[in-house]
Design a protein that fits this description.
heterodimer; A: 159 residues; mainly alpha; 2 domains; two-stranded antiparallel ribbon; globular; B: 247 residues; 3-stranded antiparallel β-sheet; disordered N terminus
Chain lengths: 159, 247
Amino acid sequence: MSVRDQIYRAYKLNDFNACYRILNAAAPGKDREERNSITYWRSTILKAEGRFTEALSALEEGHVDFDCASLYSLMKARLFVRLGRSPEAIAVLQSAPVVDEHETYPALTLEAAYYLCALLIESGQPAPADLLALIPDDFITMNDQKRFVGKSDLLKGSA
Amino acid sequence: MTGIPSRNSASALGKRVAPADVVKSGIAALKDRWTTRTRFSAHRRWITWTSEGPELGASTRLARCVEGNEARLVALLSIAFERPVGADVIGRLKRAEADFRNGAIARSAMEIALANLPPLDDLESGRRLHMAAGLLDLGFIDPLTLLEISDIDGSEVAKLLKYSEDQPRVPAGQGGAGQWTGSNTSRAEELAVAMPEGCHEEWQKAIEICEDLLNSPNPSRALTGGHTTAYGCAKGLVSARCGGNPV
């Protein structure tokens, strides 16, 4: 059984010890997707525990296995924000191949595009027109404060 | 009711409005979105509570929560039904929201039924509501002006506004116009979504699970539902209590 299949239940129950047991027992070998999943979940769980620096290190250690570079950048940016390093969060997302990857990973690139636009607006900078155009009007996501936000929130912020 | 208010009619009333090009592009976007909505969104004949607030017509969100949006709710219902809706509807909506938050979905629907509002049957009413809600969302107009220029008696809305005159409000021309705002609240707090206890966390976890699933060029359709957004995918993983898709 893959890490992904085992970890969802434990994570939903906030059973982080069980999550670590699953991750530590995993033997992904040459399975890149499995290795990627382990990195993703180790970083996500560390973040959920508030261990942001460790989450960042775990993410960076496994970054070569990410299929979607925009997701890697997005996760890194979210951690930078938690660590109070917003300029680095903006920089990492600005160098992410969001537009190039959009066709293959529409969901993840939209999340990355939205996050970058929100960070730029928050810091008083304009959101890039190409990224704004990429985001559908009815796009909804959850921000760092666990609030649902949409494109209109970006437009309001940039007005 | 003469249709959707124009910028000129708002200007004629001396109200502050957004620049013409912003209004124009905003209205164009609302019209485009209406085409998508009629194709893909459920038509709600009655007010239906969801995790993101009450919806009506082409799943148009009336507000994110009742508290602080009383004038907006009464104005939008008046626009939808083309007649002044009494402010007493707010009591029912508050109870419907509380029941929804407590997971008492049937009781929530019963409160809506007791509000004695007619069903919103026709597409044109749905379109009118969609445009009006969009104009308020974009901050082009406030609830009272919306009624004034639509030739609908706004005294009930004015009454609601009068109750909290001391409380600061988002001015016309800004996002969330006419809605109450606390002096120390951030935009995120103003946009707080009324959801039952624990649902925000459930949604967040579902989105994280979806991001893992979608980080594959060929994600399992059975798990992601074939959605192209993390929110759409997460909706299939979140419980119905929290606004997820019913199993």
